[in-house]
Amino acid sequence: MTSEATSTLGYGFTDLPHLISLMVGDEKHSPAAHSTLDALWVLYDRVLKVHPGNAGAADRDRFLLSKGHGPMAYYAVLAAKGFFPVELLHSFGSYDSPLGHHPDRLLVPGAEIGSGSLGHGLPLAVGTALGLRAQGLDDPAVWVLLGDAEFDEGSNHEAVAFAGAYGLDRLHALVIDNSSATHGWSGGIAARFAGEGWSTATVDGRDHEALYRAFTAPHPGRPHVVVARTEPKNS
Prior knowledge:
5-stranded parallel beta sheet, 12% strand, globular, alpha/beta, disordered N terminus, 9 helices
């Protein structure tokens, strides 16, 4: 979905490197941030039904950034979409800025969770999907973005199994695979999800059309994971 705010502000994907360059200062986990840039843009520009005008609405889509230790791309996309002024990016990481090195949902407009302690986003997304279902809100989609290294944390494996068994079909996981996991998974990341009944797709994380097709693929009765492969972290 392209929001009304986007057309008013006029920012596009090609503007994102400049917006990121406005965030200067101490080390900022740049590889982690840049690995998410294309996928975040396609989600916010063409898929998610959330924008500044409905950010508090019960029927909005939810996006949870689990990979919160590298938030620069996230902040750049939120600014480009009008959730907060672009000028705020200059304050990134400073003492009194709402834009911390880890997102804070109480300070960052548009952020659904505080994150950065890795391995918690997917369980939170499972709970969010369950909560919406319990309220009879069957339309909002729940998306969570994780890094491949987060699957070194056991909490994710419990969440994968639970969501598959409960058929949480409004739940979507986006895994950015930049080959930073300690051990990796036999058969690949998608195989772990498929074994628990998830719908899966693995695509080039820099190919916007491939990402869009994977994001919008039908998956009735099952949660869906998109594994977006990017260049290795240390390449």
